[in-house]
Design a protein that fits this description.
Layout lengths: L12 E6 L3 E6 L2 E6 L11 H5 L2 E4 L2 E4 L4 E4 H5 L12
Antiparallel strand pairs: 1-2, 2-3, 4-5, 5-6
């Protein structure tokens, strides 16, 4: 009897925690922290919007409900990318 091959892992990126200080994203075995001070777009969003994350290409994350695109590089080194949105 032959067993069917396991399918591909379709969950490449997952929000694992949301706190008063920021959110944690797990991607490819690496946990990335995004503090609200550097990523203010997430602060007043619903849990549903924050956990709805896609990875259209490796290391590129997209939150369609809030139209936010981030790369792993931006998340790990926000100081290299000083442009920030002003929330009014």
């Amino acid at each position: 009897m032959n067993s069917l091959a396991h399918g591909n892992n379709t969950l490449a990126a997952e929000v694992t925690n949301i706190s008063a200080h920021g959110i944690w994203l797990l991607a490819h075995g690496k946990e990335l922290f995004m503090p609200y001070a550097d990523f203010p777009w997430f602060k007043d969003q619903t849990v549903k919007s924050i956990i709805n994350v896609e990875e259209p290409s490796p290391g590129h994350f997209y939150w369609p409900d809030i139209d936010v695109d981030l790369t792993e590089e931006i998340i790990e080194h926000p100081e290299h990318f000083p442009l920030k949105v002003k929330i009014t």
